[in-house]
Amino acid sequence: MRGMWFCLVQARLVAAATHSLVESANWLVQGQASEEKLISSAKQVASSTAQLLVACKVKAEPDSSSMRGLQAAGNAVKQATDHLVRAAQRSIAQEQEFRLVINQRMVGGIAQEIGAREEILRKERELEEAHERLRQLRLAKYGTTADGIR
């Protein structure tokens, strides 16, 4: 009974992640979200689906037709989310190509370089803050982080 409950919880997590992915896609189309949010949501769907498969493998007969079908569905989800992530990453790269116009004057070029370095430092700080938020979330949720730190 406990194993079935765990499968149900995992299935609900897949549903929640899928809902988040649909919302992210909708917001992106409306210009209210970024490709990065879509990528993060897609990766969460893939992760939740993989966890559901693991939970189901514990309860199911390994060679049963339902387990093979579930595994095929899980592989299809993984493949679809991988395609979505790659498409979003290509979109980001194309958008960045369009924005890069180099100022040929010396002072203007130096100012652009300073601005680019400033942006890198700001994004590195934002990344560190995001990693810390994720660590705190995992600590609150699981009592430990992914690297085993309590």
TrEMBL record:
Keywords: Coiled coil, Cytoplasm, Signal. Residues 1-16 form the signal peptide. The keyword Cytoplasm applies. It is found in: Cytoplasm. GO terms for biological process: actin cytoskeleton organization; cell-cell adhesion. Residues 113-140 form a coiled coil. Its main location: cytoplasm. The keyword Coiled coil applies. One of its GO terms (cellular component) is focal adhesion. Residues 1-145 form the I/LWEQ domain. One of its GO terms (molecular function) is actin binding. It comes from the Eukaryota. SUPFAM superfamilies: I/LWEQ domain. PANTHER family: RHEA, ISOFORM B, TALIN. This is I/LWEQ domain-containing protein. It comes from Rhipicephalus microplus. The lineage of its organism: Eukaryota, Metazoa, Ecdysozoa, Arthropoda, Chelicerata.
